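Practice problem. Given the sequence and the SMILES for flavin mononucleotide, write out the predicted structure.
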Amino acid sequence: MSENLADVCRYLSHGVYVVGVASGELRHAFTAAWVMQVSFNPLLLAISINPAHYSYQVLQAGGVCTVNVLGQHQYALAEHFGRSGVTDKMAGFNWHTDQSGAPVLSESLAYFDCKVSHYTDAGDHKVAICTVLAARQLQHGSPLLYGQTGTMDGSEKFYQDAK
Ligand SMILES: Cc1cc2nc3c(=O)[nH]c(=O)nc-3n(C[C@H](O)[C@H](O)[C@H](O)COP(=O)(O)O)c2cc1C
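Answer key:
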């Protein structure tokens, strides 16, 4: 049994997603686990994003994003898009666009094409509430789960001062 916050929080179930962002010609993407549906009608998703991420700047400037669902076999993609300071992070992958113009990861299991409705503050993160413009399944398969990524996100250090 553990009372370690990082260990206990891993019992909260999340999927693993690549969030694609765009502003004009600029495209970028990052790995996110803190994504959830928050309304049926209109269909809304909430994405919790650290405002220090480069992706946040692009999201704020462009106001559009995609949520791309990773499959069990796509651990390496979660790792790749979870790195910061990578120049040309999008290179070597196939992307397309739907209505918003944000990049859709063509090999994802499914995607949601979104427009930011508004932001809300959540402690050290910002939560982007996003209206879904289009959604589509692209492949069959089971989603990768956050718990299966172990310590990939290096989040243990953020719990040290948590109350
Ligand atoms: C499995 C996993 C889940 C993550 N979930 C989130 C998340 O929900 N929100 C967030 O802001 N960052 C999350 N991150 C961290 C970002 O992906 C990471 O900091 C990334 O480098 C940010 O990219 P950028 O600075 O190029 O925008 C996660 C990372 C991993 C590996």
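Check your answer against the key. The longest strand covers residues 110-122.
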